[in-house]
Design goal:
Layout lengths: L3 E10 L4 E9 L5 E5 L11 E12 L1 E6 L17 H17 L2 E6 L6 H11 L6 E4 L4 E2 L21 E2 L3 H13 L4 E5 L18 H14 L2 E6 L2 H10 L3 E4 L5 H10 L2 E3 L2 H9 L6 H23 L22 H9 L3 H7 L2 H7 L14 E4 L16 E6 L2 E5 L2
Parallel strand pairs: 1-4, 5-6, 6-7, 8-9, 10-11, 11-12, 12-13
Antiparallel strand pairs: 1-2, 2-3, 4-14, 14-15, 15-16
């Protein structure tokens, strides 16, 4: 395979806040070799040319919070009927759909049976199409907390999933096991949640000392950590424990915002999860809807205050939660803008900011980065909704390989 030239395109560069006519040369290794503005010099005869016909090229979208094994059903108990093999098959299907819609990298935010790691391996080896994957294992939960699969089930039913930890020693042991099993990220349930039964978003989950023990193990081997944290006390505990990102962040204190901005801890709001629950409240469990209604205003307020306070905002959808479907991930960019982010910062949240959090060499027009791109018929800077319309998608490339090209 020779080099590839993408020509006659407008580069939508969120990092430089510009839209400019240009061309991109991709190396045989799938990396950006050269970016041209103006005339393109003669290239070798084996260079494959993709003509964009004056469409808009931007870095592939990155979603920092998905659940590939989940399908977006309103009733999560339906998943209890599926085997591990069924969930793996669905995860691969969702991975394919995600990539075909221009989401070229994701962070799988927790799955049982090693599914996220297996999808990552399948994509990396080339067994199955999908986005680049950073994978968390099973989230760490306290007994009875958000993430304990035994919640709402009678005691005589025993689950083979779940990473329940009730002490620093438990957390350290679980961290070492997941590190052994090759996860990229450790995930902690620092508070209650919306979709779970038996807890509330305002309740504490893991304690600071539990998370700190696992964070130490993660840092020892150079992997990252994330915390599902909605309650103020859970957010504060996770920050003090040293996590790399706060997921959801419904009730952010001023101390949390200042600390996150100072330490570079990212906020991944996942507004899509909240919005889709409320948009389909007649098809979602009443307890889930009620918790979402209670938290909605505080959630949007926290995102805006965090943004104004200098906290890095990263795009994440929580895809796989009720009616929050894989492939529709770009909706979150629109919701971030509606929450108060500028157009350019909304795009950055799904490109350079997300790439930094996931520690992936992609998300921007820079030599040596992966050639992950999306081609659109319309300029998303003029209308972010252009990112969400399937008929506006004209092309997808992943590390220089064409996934879709209808230019």
């Amino acid at each position: 395979m020779g080099k590839t030239l993408i020509q006659n395109v407008h580069l939508v560069d969120a990092e430089r806040e510009m839209v400019q006519a240009g061309a991109v040369l991709i190396s045989e290794a799938g990396l950006i070799e050269k970016i041209f503005f103006g005339a393109v010099p003669p290239l070798g005869p084996d260079t494959h040319v993709l003509d964009g016909h004056n469409r808009y090229l931007l870095p592939g979208i990155i979603d920092a919070h998905v659940h590939l094994r989940s399908g977006g059903a309103g009733n999560r108990d339906l998943d209890s009927k599926w085997t591990a093999a069924d969930l793996m098959a669905r995860a691969l299907m969702n991975a394919r759909t995600t990539l075909q819609r221009g989401i070229t990298a994701v962070r799988d935010a927790g799955s049982p049976f090693g599914i996220g790691v297996a999808v990552r391996r399948a994509v990396t080896i080339g067994w199955h199409p999908g986005p680049h994957v950073r994978a968390a294992g099973e989230p760490f939960s306290i007994t009875g907390g958000h993430g304990d699969p035994q919640n709402s089930w009678p005691a005589h039913i025993h689950w083979e999933t779940g990473t329940v930890v009730d002490s620093p020693d438990d957390a350290r042991r679980a961290a070492r096991r997941q590190i052994r099993d090759k996860v990229d990220v450790l995930k902690f349930m620092a508070s209650g949640g919306v979709s779970s039964v038996g807890d509330k978003s305002t309740e504490r989950g893991l304690r600071e000392e539990d998370m700190r023990a696992a964070v130490e193990e993660a840092r020892n081997v150079g992997i990252r950590t994330m915390a599902h944290a909605q309650a103020e006390i859970g957010i504060d505990n996770a920050i003090r424990a040293g996590v790399d990102s706060i997921e959801h962040g419904f009730y952010l204190s001023e101390w949390a915002i200042e600390s996150m901005a100072e330490r570079g801890i990212a906020l991944v709001p996942t507004l899509s999860a909240m919005i889709q629950i409320l948009n389909h409240e007649d098809k979602v469990a009443p307890t889930t809807v009620e918790k979402a209604k209670i938290a909605r205003d505080a959630h949007f307020d926290s995102v805006l205050r965090a943004y104004r306070g200098g906290v890095p905002i990263v795009m994440g959808t929580d895809a796989g939660t009720p009616f929050n479907f894989h492939g529709e991930n770009a909706q979150e960019i629109v919701y971030l803008h509606e929450a108060g982010l500028s157009v350019w910062d909304s795009l950055r949240a799904a490109s350079t900011r997300a790439a930094a959090l996931l520690d992936l060499p992609t998300g921007q027009f820079a030599e040596g980065k992966w050639a992950d791109f999306v081609l659109l018929n319309q300029n998303p800077v003029d209308d972010l909704d252009a990112l969400t319309r399937p008929d506006n998608l004209a092309g997808v490339l992943q590390k220089g390989a064409v996934v879709l090209w209808n230019a």
